[in-house]
Amino acid sequence: MDNNITDRMEKVSYRNLPSKLSLALLALVLTFSISNSAFASTTVLPTQAADTTAGEALFKANCAACHKLGKKATGPALRGVGDKYDREWLYSWIKNSTAMVKSGDAQAVAIYEEYNKSVMTSFPALTNADIDNIIAYTYTQPKTVVLPPTPPGTESSGGGVSNNIILGILSLVFLMLVVILYLVNNTLRNFAKSQGIEVEEKEARTPIWKLFIQNQFLVLVTSILLLLTAGYFGYGYLMQVGVDQGYAPVQPIHYSHRIHAGENQIDCNYCHSSARKSKHSGIPSLNVCMNCHKNIGEVAAETQLQGEQEFGVDYNAEIQKLYKAVGWDEENQAYTGVTEPVKWVRIHNLPDFAYFNHSQHVTVGGIECQKCHGPVEEMEIMSQHSPLTMGWCINCHRETNIKVEGNDYYTKIHDELAKKYGKDKLTAAEMGGLECGKCHY
Amino acid sequence: MITNMKSLINIAVVLVATVALVSCSEQGKPNFQYMPNMYEPVGYETYGEYEVFAGQMEAMLPAEGTIPRGWMPYDYEDTTEGLNLAKAELTNPLEVSLESLAEGKALYDIYCAVCHGTKGDGQGILMQREKILGIPSYADPGRNITEGGVYHVQMYGLNSMGSYASQTNELERWQITQHVMNLKAALKGEPLIAPKVATEETTEQELESMPEEGHGSTEH
């Protein structure tokens, strides 16, 4: 991972160097970064003779659910825990903490009380050597990923702004060209005058527009063409009124579907759980966010870097917005009770006169979310993929076969309709999916 | 020459105008509507913002003392004692059927598998990508996983795991519980839960569809 970052750093900061030189530099820095990171992850205090790599694996598998190194989580922060407690005490605590609390050990009871009487899981399977390794791992210093200084000019939101700048510069150049041509023309004329050269004046002709008006056929054809073009564009304009395809408002918290649904492959239904069984595909309440973000207070360094460079977003700051809204005190790992609403901007919105039911499509029909919402798992910023017009609905109802499997309640009607239309598969339209009253009431 | 100049200027004006028009069209605002009073709902809409509500939010918690549909009061408290009690005495009222097992698997894959893994071995995608760490296997010897305990934890959450009560209803939680118990049995190499009245064939099918790997991982 470190390599990737340095690789990216390289590309950005040395873009202007001759390619050969930069390649050589790249190789050099890569070798350095590899050896560096190798050292960083195995830094051990001289007194520790234990295996931190094994300790890291054990820590991640067993302890990390409740403990972080530098921060309080469900349990206390574990960096340097070997100094706080006697080694023998730690062995017996980790192997069976409940028994120690019961036996009335002063330290054990103290920590049990401090952490709201939450019981630490017993790990009888860990050997003393394993525990030594884990403790050794807790002394390692956090790996620091150095963010490259953002080169001037390429900060934050790249695409749109730079495009506008280029367009602006182009039009400026064009304007200057016009002015220069005008000035040159003027000077030439003045020059000709002073030299006494007669500039040839063209003999007066009937202006072209008069000729055009005199030719009635041309006028007729042009006006018909004009009317047709106006009609075409006018129709196009009127048809897009009320259609919000591509609508991508700025949301109060920059939530990336690309990271959640794409990279982390979280099912759409995880957050939008009501899509399975109600009309609405609900916007998740913040407790659903906290299911994961109670643990994930900051994103991985690479993700943060990508956010800053590609999208101009500080993901960690966005998580802090969530904590503020839900009233989560990260320091004390507790809810403060002070909350504030997150005013998400609704994107997909059907007019009030149309009825749409998510569960009918998601659960009964078994239709993929992406069919209507598009490749959400690739969207950094959510936008409306489909036009959501009536024609679009109808078209899908005509083309899509209904799912009859596992739908005992309607088996009879499915069979009879199949007989009536003389085919195995029924489309939604043949089931009555085009009737006005199905969606308008 | 003069006519040339004029046409040049005309072209310039048109170009600047188009550039201005193109740059003005933005994605951040909704489009115009024909008849907004037919589009906009008269009643209070889901997730709407209205002055009558506290915090202007239509979305609110259920009134205190009410029970949502599909729910039953849950008597065990969100404490260690409550968890132990549920572990000891709470049992799954749901009859085992192929449907409930299939439903439980589908729900488990949505809500639990991101962390706990499709096999229940604690190797979900978030664990593999090191987003969330330390997810134990269901077969972990330090954890005595019982039906009641599984249900209780879904209800209230435990330690770093949050509550899933808002995303599932009572029936769904018991279906998930069935699947979790099956995963645990598969990991430990014990016999799986199967429908009582099922014929031998269906039981075999069920057994085959369950994950095969992870047997004998008790030694971890």
Protein described:
The complex is a heterodimer of chains A (441) and B (220). Chain A has four domains: 45-138, Orthogonal Bundle (Cytochrome Bc1 Complex, Chain D, domain 2), CATH 1.10.760; 153-201; 257-386, no CATH class; 389-441, no CATH class. Chain A has a two-stranded antiparallel ribbon with strand order 1-2. Mean pLDDT of chain A is 79; it is low at 1-48 and 150-158. Chain A is built from 22 helices and two strands. Chain A starts with a helix and ends with a helix. Chain A is mainly alpha-helical and 441 residues long. In chain A, 54% of the residues lie in helices and 1% in strands. The longest helix of chain A is centred in the middle third of the chain and has 37 residues, at 159-195. Chain A has helices at 2-13, 19-41, 52-63, 81-84, 87-95, 97-103, 106-114, 128-138, 159-195, 208-214, 216-240, 257-263, 268-271, 286-293, 301-311, 315-326, 358-364, 369-373, 390-399, 411-421, 429-433, 436-439; strands at residues 328-329, 334-335. Chain A is flat. In chain A, helix 1 (2-13) runs antiparallel to helix 2 and helix 14 crosses helix 16. Chain B is mostly helical and 220 residues long. Chain B has a domain at 112-188: Orthogonal Bundle (Cytochrome Bc1 Complex, Chain D, domain 2), CATH 1.10.760. Chain B has helices spanning 2-24, 36-39, 80-89, 98-111, 113-116, 125-128, 147-156, 170-188, 200-209. Chain B starts with a helix and ends in an 11-residue tail after the last helix. In chain B, 30% of the residues are buried. At the A-B interface, helix 3, helix 9 and helix 14 of A face helix 1 and helix 4 of B.
